[in-house]
């Protein structure tokens, strides 16, 4: 259940009076999600999504608002937050920070086809091209420094082999990325399939930017490839891989340094999710009664990437 703070029709109707979005017709809680309370709101003008923010990090909400405004202004398929009659987007409702968004069309792709993969690569390439000029700043909360600090907390819960693997990987990445400056920009930070919406083959929206930050663009791309192209055994589907990367590279060719570090970044992002899911299970249980994601999926992906099963990167324009 993802409605942790219930709302009444009267509360939401009064809230909507701050905007020019019409009168409330229906209100429905959204069961998906793990951190915030989400509602589908229908007015006599349109369909909207209302989000109440339930956990910490509220100081970062202005960054998310600015980033979404910036990307929406550049015609990218993101839900730019609705601003009230005074031009303010970030509100409070039921004692929680609140944002109202237009509802994006479509549904999550469980098994994306090649056209859908290409659409994602095209959009991510355009987004990264634009986001390099975004002036907001938020450090990546799940970067290599975070991995180095937090991995020791889960070591007692791992087998001897997995302890050695995690420690060895972190040390190796620290060496590989030392004194390296990769292209930077604003990134989504969690662009899994369930954070996209497709209307048929058309990418209707990229949602849930609450892991957004400024950091290595390659980090964002590696998260996408590990999720979107990996089959049930963790191996990369080469057709999906080529579709995403071919479309992406048409907008933002990778530097020589990025190409060299690509296998490392795929392993680093697999390690990032392996660790974060282990922490939720063993160290930082969620504030609400939810079922944590299984860390084993990303332990498997890390093993596959260590096996060297990574296809060659296409050249820009291929």
Automatic annotation (TrEMBL):
CDD domains on file: HomoserineK_II
GO biological process: threonine biosynthetic process
Class of this enzyme: transferase
Keyword Kinase: yes
Reaction(s) catalysed by this chain's protein: L-homoserine + ATP = O-phospho-L-homoserine + ADP + H(+)
Taxonomy, superkingdom: Bacteria
Record keywords: Amino-acid biosynthesis, ATP-binding, Kinase, Nucleotide-binding, Threonine biosynthesis, Transferase
Pathway: Amino-acid biosynthesis; L-threonine biosynthesis; L-threonine from L-aspartate: step 4/5
Pfam families, alphabetized: APH
Stored SUPFAM superfamilies: Protein kinase-like (PK-like) (SSF56112)
Keyword Kinase: yes
Its EC number(s): 2.7.1.39
Location of the Aminoglycoside phosphotransferase domain: 26-253
GO MF annotations, alphabetized: ATP binding; homoserine kinase activity
PANTHER family found in the cross-reference section: AMINOGLYCOSIDE PHOSPHOTRANSFERASE DOMAIN-CONTAINING PROTEIN (PTHR21064:SF6), AMINOGLYCOSIDE PHOSPHOTRANSFERASE DOMAIN-CONTAINING PROTEIN-RELATED (PTHR21064)
NCBIfam families reported for this sequence: PRK05231.1 (NF003558), thrB_alt (TIGR00938)
Entry similarity comment: Belongs to the pseudomonas-type ThrB family.
Protein name in UniProt: Homoserine kinase
Organism: Salinicola socius
Gene of this entry: thrB
């Amino acid at each position: 259940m993802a409605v942790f703070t219930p709302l009444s029709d009267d509360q939401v109707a009064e809230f909507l009076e701050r905007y020019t979005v019409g009168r409330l017709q229906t209100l429905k809680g959204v069961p998906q999600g793990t951190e915030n309370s989400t509602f589908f709101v229908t007015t006599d003008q349109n369909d909207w999504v209302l989000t109440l923010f339930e956990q910490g990090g509220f100081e970062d909400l202005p960054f998310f608002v600015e980033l979404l405004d910036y990307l929406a202004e550049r015609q990218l398929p993101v839900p730019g937050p609705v601003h009230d009659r005074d031009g303010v987007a970030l509100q409070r409702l039921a004692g929680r920070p609140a944002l109202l968004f237009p509802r994006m069309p479509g549904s999550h792709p469980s098994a994306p086809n090649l056209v859908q993969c290409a659409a994602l690569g095209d959009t991510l390439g355009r987004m990264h091209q634009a986001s390099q000029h975004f002036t907001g700043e938020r450090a990546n909360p799940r970067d290599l420094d975070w991995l180095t600090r937090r991995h020791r907390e889960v070591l007692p819960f791992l087998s001897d082999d997995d302890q050695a693997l995690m420690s060895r990987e972190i040390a190796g990445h620290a060496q590989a990325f030392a004194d390296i400056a990769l292209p930077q920009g604003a990134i989504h930070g969690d662009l899994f399939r369930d954070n996209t919406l497709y209307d048929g083959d058309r990418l209707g929206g990229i949602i849930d930017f609450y892991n957004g930050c400024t950091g290595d663009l390659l980090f964002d791309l590696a998260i996408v490839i590990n999720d979107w192209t990996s089959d049930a055994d963790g191996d990369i589907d080469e057709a999906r891989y080529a579709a995403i990367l071919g479309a992406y590279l048409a907008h933002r060719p990778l530097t020589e340094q990025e190409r060299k570090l690509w296998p490392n970044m795929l392993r680093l992002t697999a390690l990032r999710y392996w660790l974060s899911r282990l922490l939720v299970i063993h160290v930082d249980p969620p504030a609400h009664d939810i079922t944590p994601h299984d860390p084993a999926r990303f332990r498997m992906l890390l093993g596959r990437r260590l096996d060297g099963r990574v296809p060659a990167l296409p050249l820009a324009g291929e």
